[in-house]
Amino acid sequence: MSPLLSWALAFALGCLALAMMLALARMILGPRAEDRVLAFDCLYLNVMLVILALGLIYRSSSYFEAALLIALFGFVGSTAMSKFLLRGEIIE
Amino acid sequence: MDTLTALLVVVGALAALLGSFGLLRLKSFFQRVHAPTLGATLGTWGFALATAVQISFEHSQLYLHALLIAVFIALTAPITTLFLMRAAVFRARMRGEKILVPGADEPPRPE
């Protein structure tokens, strides 16, 4: 791995850590429940990107599967919470 | 090839950072809904393409599994956002705020 790529990956990890902190701040001080669900959505996307970056750093393809699973379960969780906010019950 | 991967990774990370920053900075919820879309599209595509490029050139064979994540997120992010907007409109109306319906409550545009 060239030094350029390792520096770029370190920079990307720093950016994503900052992005996760910003999403967490919105999750904590979001005035209503919708804001918190939206912040959670943003947060799990950032976590997925961090795991993809780690897969590039450690040159392992098993990180990709973890990222796919996180994307899948994050979507299910966000959708379930949105439906709960909309109806008060998830399975109708 | 490392240069291309580095460029894609940096662009994706900056897009995700900008999306989260907008999530914190914009004022009303209906503005904030649109901020994480930046990270969900450009960020995910940047990282997925970087992974695909890097692994393809390391193993010298085409590796497109990483694009699966980008396609999946592109399919599912609008669904989540749509449900969330509907829930926000519903709850705002339950609280008694007036949210205009486009086309029904607006004055007709002068032709």
Notes on the protein architecture:
The complex is a heterodimer of chains A (92) and B (111). With 92 residues, chain A is an all-alpha fold. Chain A has one domain: Helix Hairpins, CATH 1.10.287. Chain A has helices at 3-29, 33-58, 62-87. In chain A, helix 1 (3-29) packs antiparallel against helix 2 (33-58) and helix 2 runs antiparallel to helix 3 (62-87). Chain A is elongated and about 50 Å long. Helices cover 72% and strands 0% of the residues of chain B. Chain B starts with a helix and ends in a 17-residue tail after the last helix. In chain B, helix 1 runs antiparallel to helix 3 and helix 3 runs antiparallel to helix 4 (67-94). Chain B contains 4 helices and no strands. Chain B is elongated, with a radius of gyration of 19 Å. The mean pLDDT of chain B is 87. At the A-B interface, helix 1, helix 2 and helix 3 of A face helix 1, helix 3 and helix 4 of B.
Write the topology of this structure.
The complex is a heterodimer of chains A (92) and B (111).
Chain A: H1 3-29, H2 33-58, H3 62-87
Helix pairs in contact in A: 1-2, 2-3
Chain B: H1 2-25, H2 29-32, H3 36-59, H4 67-94
Helix pairs in contact in B: 1-3, 3-4
Distance between the termini of chain B: 54 Å
- Portion of residues in beta strands of chain A equals under 5%
Instruction: Give the second-level CATH assignment, the architecture of chain A.
Output: Orthogonal Bundle
Q: Write down the overall mean pLDDT of chain A.
A: 89
Helical/strand content category of chain A: mainly alpha
> Main sheet of chain A?
none
Element-by-element helix/strand order of chain A: HHH
Binned, the helix content of chain A reads: over 70%
User: How would you sum up the global shape of chain B?
Assistant: elongated
For the secondary structure, the number of strands of chain A is 0
Domain count of chain A: 1
Shape call of chain A: elongated
Number of helices of chain B: 4
Helix count from the secondary structure assignment of chain A: 3
Measured as a percent range, the helix fraction of chain B is: over 70%
Distance linking N and C termini of chain A? 52 Å
Low-confidence stretches of chain A: none
Give the structural class of chain B: mainly alpha
> Which sequence of SSEs, written as H and E, runs from N to C of chain B?
HHHH
